[in-house]
Write a structure and sequence with these properties.
The chain contains two helices and three strands, in the order E-H-E-H-E. By secondary structure, the chain is of the alpha/beta class. The protein has a three-stranded parallel β-sheet, covered by helices on one side.
Amino acid sequence: MTQSVPYYPEQGALVHEGALAGVLPPGLRPEDARLLFVHAHPDDESIATGATMGRYAELGAHVVLLTMTRGERGEVIPAPLRHLEVGRPGCRDDGTALGLYRVGELEDAAARLGVAERFF
């Protein structure tokens, strides 16, 4: 029988037995921590470390995000936005419009995740 919905194993089932429960050194309280997350492009923070960022921000840590690009030359998946992808029909610039769009998404995500500072 084929499952019609995604299957997720029991929480923690794939966690290595020696894995740490958190990212802070022993004895450092979250409210005393300053955490820097570095990602290549916008949306990586949401896909890769968003839960960690949000959790530590919620606990009082000072969360900082460094994003290396604005995503100007990235692939565009949603059909209504494909005209922003460089090289696609309808794209009339060098990726500036896509970069601006992705920066807006990044600003929204960072605010929701509790990021205190954000840089490129």
